[in-house]
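Repro:
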Amino acid sequence: MNLVGIGYDIHPFASPEAQRKLVLGGVEIAHPVGLDGHSDADVLCHAIADAMLGAIGEADIGHHFPNTDASIRGISSLEIVRRSVQFVAEQGGRIVNIDSTLIAEEPKIGPHLTAMRAHLAAALGIEPRRVGIKATTNERLGSLGRKEGIAAMAVVSVEMA
């Protein structure tokens, strides 16, 4: 049996004074500001983790990795992905593939796609060719269009034993 899950996440950019690094798909990207969040605020990883958890009927990452838990402050979102893969495996499933989209006016995502796919594939335990990542802008509309943050959507296919 194959199951499908969908995930979405959005984070605002942090203030420059916060000196946060921008991390997307497990890759640090040179940018004047990073995203605000309890973890490293990697929206792509968060959307993928939520999609995996949703596919197996689990609660979202806010339940499993609450922003009130000081022990995971600053956690790498790739670790959230790895732990979510473990939740899937504990239910007898394995990740088949993911497809995702980053929504950002900036920075340019294209130069980082190969590295993102490699990092995510390693965390997911699948081949890089099974990790789809696309990028688009919000055509200058809304908060994302005003460059106030970045969002991501993801769909995952899980094969159950």
